[in-house]
Amino acid sequence: MVFRSIKGRLEKRAQEYQSLQAKGTSLSKSISRFLVQEFGSIGEDFYQEIIYDPSKKQVIIEIKNRVYANELQLRLNKLTEFLKDLNLEVTQIKIRI
């Protein structure tokens, strides 16, 4: 048959979207765990949002203020090693204020 079922395609895309969303959620939890591990209780308030773009394999971390961003920048090597230990493919980590 030339025409494929639209229902099948929509279900497949919905499953892909859910898996990407779950991966982003697990990444967010992992990074917040790293921040608490590195900075103690202050690490819980470090960021506003963590965004994962799987197509570009990049993580964007929105930080609340410049001092926190500088402190995270100093520990960026530890963060990349932490993400490698979790088997997450990340090529870029961007820190926004």
Give a short synopsis of this structure.
The chain is α+β, with helices and mostly antiparallel strands. The chain has helices at residues 6-39, 66-74, 76-85, and strands spanning 47-53, 58-63, 92-96. The longest helix has 34 residues, at 6-39.
Characterise this structure.
- With 97 residues, the protein is an alpha+beta fold.
- Helices cover 55% and strands 19% of the residues.
- It has three helices and three strands.
- It has helices at residues 6-39, 66-74, 76-85; strands at 47-53, 58-63, 92-96.
- The chain has a three-stranded mixed β-sheet with strand order 1-2-3.
- A hairpin with a 4-residue loop joins strand 1 (47-53) and strand 2 (58-63).
- The chain starts with 5 loop residues before the first helix and ends with a strand.
Summarize the helix and strand pattern as letters: HEEHHE
| Sequence stretches where pLDDT stays below 50 over 5 or more residues | none
Largest sheet: 3 strands, mixed
The proportion of strand residues reads 15-25%
Cα radius of gyration in angstroms: 17 Å
Choose one word for the global shape: elongated
Q: In which order are the strands of the major sheet placed?
A: 1-2-3
> In DSSP terms, counting alpha (H) and pi (I) runs of 4 or more, how many helices?
3
C-alpha end-to-end distance: 53 Å
Helix content: 40-55%
Number of strands: 3
Q: What oligomeric state do the depicted chains represent?
A: single chain
Helix/strand class:
alpha+beta
Mean model confidence by pLDDT: 81
